[in-house]
Design goal:
Elements: H1 13-28, H2 33-39, H3 44-56, E1 60-63, E2 66-69, H4 71-99, E3 102-109, E4 112-119, E5 135-137, H5 141-148, H6 153-160, H7 166-179, E6 182-185, E7 192-200, E8 206-215, H8 226-242
Antiparallel strand pairs: 1-2, 3-4, 3-8, 4-5, 6-7, 7-8
Helix pairs in contact: 1-3, 2-3, 4-8
Amino acid sequence: MLGNRVTVPEISQTADQMLIVLENIADAGPASAAEVARNCDLNRTVALRLLNTLAQRNYIRRTTEGYVLGTAAIRLGHSAEEDISVLAKPMMDRLADQVSETVVLHCMEKDEAVVVEQAIGAKHLVRVQHQPGSRHPLFIGASGWSILAFQDEKTISRVLKKSLDANEARSRIAKIRVDGFAISHDELQQGVHGIAAPLKEADGSCSASIAILVPSLRADGVTKLARPLLKLAGDISDALQRR
């Protein structure tokens, strides 16, 4: 009798290498062909062939400083942001009404968290607002930390090279992974407290977060927002995985 056989799907090595090159340019560009080959552990000739292919399809472009993302890649990124915004906004509006605080959606772009959407609770006269399109490093603010904590080790190490205290950052990441959310105060804006949770794809990857922002005068209740925040993060993540 034959036992159960698990079939491992095959992948295209060339396609995988091309995606690695594209991700490297997105993370570390502008980059020369030699830098791409070294960073991606590729033969120089192979790297050049992949770069030429990506450039011909406008996923990257060559500048005097090196290769950077092209219009095709940028367009895909904008499409993804619009997609998640349309999906998440109604749920964000409901939570903002429920907790009477501002709910913000961030997406990861290179090593930064970018404000993509927000829903503002209208009950209180004093409330927090973000500027859509504003960005900050992943190691600042609850939204950034909640994304950073669920990145691969290579990304975390690269990002933390710019932080003030890598050991303290590592401890903070470990706590976020246990709790499932991040908390911050006075990191991006004085007098603002934030609590944020990651939005995860089916494969466990994370490139976005959802946060609730509270002014310091109501900060005593920020931890009580963890339950509704985690429910919203789960609902949005489930919806993203069903797309």
